[in-house]
Predict the structure.
Amino acid sequence: MKIRRIEERCSRCMRCVEDCASGVWRVVDKTPTAVSPEACNRCSHCLSVCPENAIENDYLKATQVRPVDNKRIDPNVYREIALSRRSIRHYKNKPVDPEIINDIIDLARYSPTASNSQHVAYTVIADPERLRQISDTVFGIARRFYEWSRTRSGKFIVKGLQMNPSIDLAMQKYIEPMEYYIQLKESGRDLILHNAPALILLHGPSASFFGSDNCHIAATNMSNYAHSLGLGSCFIGFVTLLSRFNKKLCGLLELPKGQKLYASLVIGHPAFSHPQTASRKSPAVSWVK
């Protein structure tokens, strides 16, 4: 595998040297030179930053590199996408075209990853029966915890746990109203996957230091892009959390061996629109000077 500079095109602007994070490109005799190609992390920055298209990198697919269409980059459009995207919990009984899902995933692969590891992988579950089983399993775990919390020993332990503000808040939100949630569940409401036609699991190596960061960045791009396509999405944190503890759920998800689930996202056609933006509290910002 080789990385080389095309002499007749190179203007010696040194941008490849300045932008190379891996030390592949360095200045040798006032000329940008690929001194250690084996250190390349395949970030493509040398190709994308070169104004003269004067670099060949065998580690990369040059056909995927094209000029950026700056006329299509509009901050107002992006801001409107971010402001109008909602977590959708009601979907039409209509499947999402697999080609659209593949298109969304294809865009997500351009999301940044730590050290350009590009190790985010995807599992798409669109089988209605499998989705029902996943939803029932997750809800069943919550229901059993609720029933246990009503026992004498459960009440005693839960009271101690609620001394932790975070646990107390979770109990108030998810466990204390469980009787109402059970009624909704028995009426046919899916409180876990929201009757969405597809669940997308984002996973990576179990031992990855930055697997969660990488997958959530990709999932956020997927959610925003899906919204721009007229689709809705919702992060399903309970699927991600319980996949680490429940063998039955892990079996239903069928993650590849050695992989850990870091983000779960349902996607589908929204049952109704949200014509207004939402209210959000002001961010807590500290400037260190």
User: Anything to note?
Assistant: Residues 142 and 225 are 32 Å apart (CA to CA). The chain has a mean pLDDT of 95. The longest helix spans residues 128-149.
